[in-house]
Amino acid sequence: MWNTISTSLPQILEAGFKYTIPLALISFFIGLALALVTALIRLSATKGINIVIKLFFRFYVWLFRSTPLLVQLFIVYFGLPYLKIKGLTPEGIKLDPFMAGVLTFSLNTGAYASETIRAAIESVPSGQWEAAASIGMTRTQTLKRIILPQALRVSVPPLANSFISLVKDTSLAASITIVEMFEVSQQIAAENYEPLLMYSLVAVVYAIFCTILSWLQGKLEKKLNASHVKRGSESR
């Protein structure tokens, strides 16, 4: 058993650092940018943003929050090649597995994170908007200098949890042939006929990764809270 673990673990870890972590990081940051745009558009005054655009983003959030991630992966990787539009995509939309994974995970993350960011922005007392306007700050200045920094501190814990969940969800990428950790464990299990050992081993690796990320999350939260307390004492 130990010989099997010693030969399999390096392969699983290599797949983790080569595919699992990069896939999660790239998808999360793209999704985070998309989430911020989505949240700001949905919170903007209707007169400033075309109602059709707001409805589009509302539909996007609803769609990706209402359908399974695995189904989304299959649609993007296996389904889009059959989306043949004359003059636009005559041969369909064909993406390599990694790009299909990044696109799907980014869109999925963006949908969920946008609700987190929207709730965090709405949690800031409306009186701060009014106070900023009274001293001549524009809405953009108020958002950038006052609202978003406070919303960031509120949204860090749920967003960090979303990233940890995303790391685990990357195991679904095996279904579209991305050779990440779970896919490697399946390949090894098919060779040595030790599925229980291999799946348990990859579960331990996921657990270690997520434990480290949870520890980093705690450190970040403490740092943000300490910074908030320091600013509060200075303002008094």
From TrEMBL:
It is a multi-pass membrane protein. The keyword Cell membrane applies. The keyword Transmembrane helix applies. GO terms for molecular function: L-cystine transmembrane transporter activity. It holds the Pfam family BPD_transp_1. The chain crosses the membrane at residues 20-43, 55-80, 196-216. InterPro entries: AA_ABC_transptr_permease_3TM, ArtM/GltK/GlnP/TcyL/YhdX-like, MetI-like, MetI-like_sf. It comes from the Bacteria. Gene3D superfamilies: MetI-like. GO terms for cellular component: ATP-binding cassette (ABC) transporter complex. It is found in: Cell membrane. Its main location: membrane. Residues 17-214 form the ABC transmembrane type-1 domain. Keywords: Amino-acid transport, Cell membrane, Membrane, Transmembrane, Transmembrane helix, Transport. Belongs to the binding-protein-dependent transport system permease family. PANTHER family: L-CYSTINE TRANSPORT SYSTEM PERMEASE PROTEIN TCYL, MEMBRANE COMPONENT OF AMINO ACID ABC TRANSPORTER. This is Amino acid ABC transporter permease. It comes from Ligilactobacillus ubinensis. The lineage of its organism: Bacteria, Bacillati, Bacillota, Bacilli, Lactobacillales.
